[in-house]
Amino acid sequence: MRVAVVGAGVSGLAATKCCLDEGLEPTCFEQSQDIGGLWRYTELIETGRPSLYPSVISNTSKEMSAFSDFPFPEHFPVFLPNALLLDYLRRYTEHFSLREHIRFGSTVVSIHKHPDFATTGQWDVVTEAGGKQTSHVFDAVMVCSGNFSEPSLPLQCFPGIERFRGQYFHSRQYKHPDVFQGKRVLVVGMGNSGVDIAVEASRVAAKVMISTTRGAWLLSRVFEHGYPWDMILNTRLMSLIKTNLPGPLSWWLINYKVNQWFNHENYGLQPENSWRVREPVLNDELPSYILTGRITIKPGVKEFKDNSVLFHNCPEEEPIDIVVFCTGYTISFPFLKESVVRVENKHASLYKYVFPPQLQKPTLAVLGLIKPLGAIMPIAEMQARWVSRVFKGLCQLPPQAVMEKEVNEKKKNQIQWFGLTFDEVLKTEWLVYLDTLASFIGAKPSVLGLLCTDPRLALTIFFGPCSPYQYRLGGPGRWQGARQAILTQWDRVLKPTRTRVPAGSSSSFLSLLTVVGFLLLLAAVIFGFL
């Protein structure tokens, strides 16, 4: 079975590898001359490719971001600069011999249903390389082109911008902070990029403001006792709490935990309707920069003037020289007909965020088009594992009516947050989503089963971080090194940081986790949560 993979970023590499695992024949088309996608920095902003600034660091820790059968080197830092993450992707590519299946410099021009699609499910794929177009026929397609290439710049939402005499641009165009030297800067939007850019700008600018309509919760990479945030929050225990307590109560607990770092209301960051979940912003420096006056948080923009801006509920105009719009990206598949993947209000209609439900044959899938509170790499890999088995006929999708009903339900109560919908955040709780897809392929770990056969491992995967290796303990693609990788995950976290160990020191916190975790695991079993 021949499979076309569009893009050689994180999702495309995982898709290629998973196809090979299932005995399929993948051909990965990458328009640039190298792998890496979003994580490959280039000074030049290339059309159709993601663009990042050189200071970008991963928001998720290496243990939670790893592919499930390929841990990061232990000497790598806990959170990865973009160059090291690209290095990891290169190691992954070489280890699993993926490069020979990638055609570099090949742009996918169009993907159409083959004339006999209703019976074969095949696709006509047209690619272009060196100015020459070539037609291919593939049995299936994995779209791994990402959603960070086409910026969303809704200027119509900002009255007066047409008469603003200063400079403005989308965050995709940002590379270095020297453009802000001595300037008065306004950053519109409070996502991760917006806060990163504001922090960098404040080191050289005369003044920096962040405009946010609804506020945001802020998390630090450094969480309780100095451990990575996602290794503390993304655990099976925390997931049980979030999914079994009444919604308002579980989110009250989370809001309380977030506010333990600092009171968001005192810093102008408190989200409106804070009982609703919204994607938190990951930044370690913003609170201190607000505290020292380097950055000021402002309400939403009411109107732009020639050389100033007026905010809602603020009578005074603020003079500005540069505006950076951090307003997200538009989902776009220029090589596909709209009838194949329907996009409405920046939301793609996909079953489990992967399969177009209306297709007669499930031979096209979209990977990585999801925004969970957690690492994207394990999710893209799990999607690829599921998709490759669907393509092979080993997993079946529900009837079309069932899939379309679920997709339509997700469209209800959508609230737009600059291209990130309320639905996408609420419905893609990281661990629950991974478990759901893992159950489809028979790779979801059984805590109760392990409690009888391997209590130490059961305790670790229940109370400890839900690292991706858990999904290689059994089922298809089982990896012999999964158990050891899980039991040594904290060693790899501490390796690059414990570079000086005082005499008599001990890992008392991890010992406490073990004891408390065992008691909580027993309680969960008694009350039937597992």
Automatic annotation (TrEMBL):
Compartments reported by the entry: Endoplasmic reticulum membrane
Q: Which UniProt keywords apply?
A: Endoplasmic reticulum, FAD, Flavoprotein, Membrane, Monooxygenase, NADP, Oxidoreductase, Transmembrane, Transmembrane helix
Cofactor(s) required, per the database record: FAD
Q: Does the keyword Oxidoreductase apply?
A: yes
Q: Which InterPro entries match?
A: FAD/NAD-bd_sf, Flavin_mOase, Flavin_mOase-like, Flavin_mOase_1, FMO-like
Function statement: Broad spectrum monooxygenase that catalyzes the oxygenation of a wide variety of nitrogen- and sulfur-containing compounds including xenobiotics. Catalyzes the S-oxygenation of hypotaurine to produce taurine, an organic osmolyte involved in cell volume regulation as well as a variety of cytoprotective and developmental processes.
The protein's name in its UniProt record = Flavin-containing monooxygenase
- In its UniProt entry, the species of origin is given as Geospiza fortis
